[in-house]
Design brief:
The chain is built from nine helices and seven strands. It has helices at 2-13, 15-27, 43-50, 68-73, 89-95, 116-125, 166-175, 189-205, 215-218; strands at 33-37, 55-60, 80-82, 101-107, 127-138, 178-185, 221-228. The protein has 232 residues and is of the alpha/beta class.
């Protein structure tokens, strides 16, 4: 029962999964190729559990917080690209085929890169015409938020190196044949409405309340969702 509740929550409360579900529904095809840029933190197993028919690929500079199940999904040299996006941009370009993926997720990755726009230019080539990309990142307003464990202020995370804006990310995508379908502050209203219940539940079971619980309430993150409509 609890497992089903968690699965349901992720489908309606985790934006990257909300948009992936939307793409699959609109295209009426669950058998798509998905590229997850920055695939640590058990992302492979969570994504495959929700969307078992997808062909999952991941990029990361290390095997970060991956379970054995994650590693089974990410068969090295087949669908796991071990690439440091800060220093191996050329490897990113030649290792991954162009016009190949139906859906690309770049969820809280770009803020860790000084060369994030260059990486995005290359990633955009990997999306096929008709495919989509979802990018999420801390917004400018996060600079003025209070500090909290788990990152509520941009500078809470020492690995954050640059604040990106919707405009500059959107312009890279526009220059590379994309149509911006939706962009703005990430605010999932389901999470906002559920917040009092979620905080009460955590208090009852003795689980720590983290900054991520407040992201949607305060508008910590921004996002761009775009569809590739032509080759450039």
């Amino acid at each position: 029962m609890i497992r089903k509740m968690i699965k349901y929550y992720r489908l309606i409360g985790v934006p990257k999964f909300v948009f992936l579900k939307k793409y699959i529904k609109e295209n009426k095809n669950p058998n798509i190729k998905v590229l997850d840029v920055g695939c640590g933190n058990k992302s492979p197993s969570m994504t495959k559990e929700l969307f078992p028919a997808i062909e999952y690929y991941g990029i990361d500079k290390e095997e970060y917080n991956l379970t054995e199940q994650d590693k089974k999904i990410l068969i090295k040299d087949k669908n796991f690209f071990l690439i440091d996006l800060d220093s191996e941009v050329e490897k990113l370009d030649y290792s991954i085929p162009d016009n190949y993926f139906d859906f690309v997720i770049m969820n809280h990755v770009i803020e860790h890169l000084k060369n994030g726009l260059d990486v995005l230019r290359i990633i955009s080539k990997k999306v096929k015409v008709g495919g989509s990309i979802y990018i999420e990142f801390p917004g400018v307003r996060s600079l003025g938020m209070p500090s909290m464990k788990g990152t509520l202020n941009f500078c809470d995370d020492p690995t954050h190196v640059r604040v990106y804006t919707i405009q500059e990310i959107a312009n890279i995508l526009l220059d590379n044949g994309f149509k911006i379908k939706k962009a703005g502050v990430r605010r999932n209203w389901f999470n906002v409405i559920l917040l009092p219940l979620k905080l009460s539940f955590k208090a009852i079971i003795g689980r720590e309340i983290g900054a991520g619980d407040f992201w949607d309430l305060f508008g910590f993150a921004e996002f761009v969702y775009a569809e590739k409509i032509k080759e450039v």
